[in-house]
C-alpha cells in the first residue's frame, strides 16, 4: 500500500530561494509541522504563514499523507495524455518545486490518494487507499515522524476536513490521534521517544466572513468577484466562524504563497479563482491566515496572532515525554 518508505525524508538542503530565510531570526529554533492530505494542500492552506515563519528562522515541516495520485487535472494547459499517464511522478515534481519555493522540509506519509468519490450515491473508495487504511497504521507512521522532528506546533484540518474529501477527513483523524499518541510513551513504543507537541491548530482560512470581505472589496474595486455564486449558497455560520482563535499576519508573503500554488501546475489554473482577486486587495482586506487553537499545553491566551505564542524563549515550555 505504501508508495514509499515512511522513513524516506525528502533530501532538502534547506531553504535556498528566500533571501529572507535564515537560521537566525525571531523564530530560530522553533519547529512547525503541517499535516496535509495531498501535494498542493500545503500551498493552498497556511502557505503564507509558512513562508513568514521560514523567513523568521523557524523550521517548517510538511507531512503529505498521500501522493495525490487520483487528483484530477484542474488546469486546462496541463490536461495532456503525457501528464495524465505520469500523474504521481508529475505531482512529486510539483511538490519539490513548491517545497523549494516555501523553504520547507517535506516528506510523504506514504499512502495512496482515495480520490474524490463522484456520484450519488457515492461509489465505494478504491481498495488500499488512504481512506481505508486502518487508523492505527497511519497514526503510527505519523507518530514516528512527530517523534523524530519534535515540532512545537502542529496544524491539521478541522473535523469536517476543511472540505469533505475523504483524505482530508482522514488527515484530520490521523493528525489528532498522532498528536495525542506521540506524547504517550506506552503508545507505539518502537516508534521513537515520546514527544509532546505544545499546540494543535486547525486551519480556518476558508470562512464565510473572509470570503464576503474579499468579495465586497473586489466589487468596490470595480472588478468581478469569483465568489458571487458560492456566497449565495453559503448559509452564514457565525458559530463556526467564531471558532477562529488565531490570526497570523502574513500579507507580505502572499506572493510566495502564490508562487508555491503555481508550482502545482496540474492542480492550479492560473486563470482561475485563486488569482482572480488582485494581491493588493487581498493584502489590504484580509492580511492574515486564520486558525483555531484546539489543544494547548502551554500558557497561550486567545485571541492570539502567533502560532508559537507561549512556546517562544522565555515562555514555559512543554516537557518532553
Ligand atoms: Zn487535498
UniProtKB/TrEMBL annotation:
Region (Disordered): 1-28
Free-text cofactor note: Binds 1 zinc ion per subunit.
Top-level enzyme category: hydrolase
Record's keyword annotation contains Cell cycle: no
Keywords for this protein: Hydrolase, Metal-binding, Zinc
Annotated Zn(2+) binding sites: 38, 41, 168
Molecular function terms from GO: hydrolase activity
Cofactor or coenzyme needed: Zn(2+)
UniProt EC number: 3.5.1.115
Known catalytic reactions: mycothiol S-conjugate + H2O = an N-acetyl-L-cysteine-S-conjugate + 1D-myo-inositol 2-amino-2-deoxy-alpha-D-glucopyranoside
Recorded family membership: Belongs to the MshB deacetylase family. Mca subfamily.
NCBIfam families per UniProt: mycothiol_Mca (TIGR03446)
Function: A mycothiol (MSH, N-acetylcysteinyl-glucosaminyl-inositol) S-conjugate amidase, it recycles conjugated MSH to the N-acetyl cysteine conjugate (AcCys S-conjugate, a mercapturic acid) and the MSH precursor. Involved in MSH-dependent detoxification of a number of alkylating agents and antibiotics.
Subunit composition and interactions: Monomer.
Protein's recorded name: Mycothiol S-conjugate amidase
Amino acid at each position: 500500500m505504501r508508495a514509499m518508505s515512511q522513513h524516506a525524508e525528502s533530501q532538502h538542503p534547506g531553504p535556498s530561494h528566500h533571501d529572507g530565510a535564515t537560521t537566525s531570526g525571531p523564530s530560530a529554533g522553533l519547529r512547525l509541522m503541517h499535516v496535509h492530505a495531498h501535494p498542493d494542500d500545503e500551498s493552498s492552506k497556511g502557505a503564507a504563514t509558512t513562508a513568514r515563519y521560514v523567513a523568521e528562522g523557524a523550521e517548517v515541516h510538511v507531512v503529505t499523507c498521500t501522493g495525490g495520485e487520483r487528483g484530477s487535472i484542474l488546469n486546462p494547459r496541463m490536461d495532456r495524455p503525457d501528464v495524465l499517464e505520469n500523474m504521481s511522478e508529475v505531482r512529486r515534481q510539483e511538490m519539490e518545486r513548491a517545497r523549494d519555493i516555501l523553504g520547507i522540509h517535506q516528506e510523504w506519509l506514504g499512502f495512496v490518494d482515495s480520490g474524490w468519490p463522484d456520484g450519488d450515491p457515492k461509489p465505494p473508495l478504491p481498495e488500499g487507499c488512504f481512506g481505508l487504511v486502518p487508523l492505527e497504521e497511519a497514526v503510527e507512521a505519523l507518530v514516528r515522524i512527530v517523534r523524530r522532528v519534535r515540532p512545537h506546533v502542529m496544524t491539521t484540518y478541522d473535523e469536517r476536513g476543511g472540505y469533505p474529501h475523504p483524505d482530508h477527513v482522514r488527515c484530520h483523524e490521523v493528525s489528532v490521534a498522532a498528536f495525542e499518541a506521540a506524547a504517550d510513551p506506552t503508545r507505539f513504543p518502537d516508534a521513537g521517544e515520546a514527544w509532546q507537541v505544545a499546540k494543535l491548530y486547525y486551519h480556518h482560512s476558508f470562512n464565510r466572513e473572509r470570503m464576503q470581505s474579499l468579495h465586497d472589496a473586489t466589487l468596490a474595486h470595480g472588478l468581478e468577484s469569483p465568489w458571487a455564486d458560492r456566497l449565495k449558497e453559503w448559509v452564514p455560520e457565525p458559530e463556526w466562524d467564531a471558532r477562529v482563535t488565531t490570526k497570523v499576519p502574513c500579507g507580505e508573503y502572499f506572493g510566495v504563497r502564490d508562487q508555491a500554488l503555481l508550482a502545482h501546475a496540474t492542480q492550479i489554473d492560473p486563470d482561475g479563482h485563486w488569482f482572480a482577486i488582485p494581491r493588493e486587495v487581498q493584502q489590504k482586506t484580509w492580511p492574515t491566515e486564520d486558525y483555531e487553537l484546539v489543544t494547548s499545553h502551554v500558557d497561550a491566551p486567545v485571541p492570539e496572532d502567533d502560532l508559537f505564542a507561549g512556546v517562544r524563549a522565555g515562555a514555559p515550555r512543554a516537557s518532553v515525554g
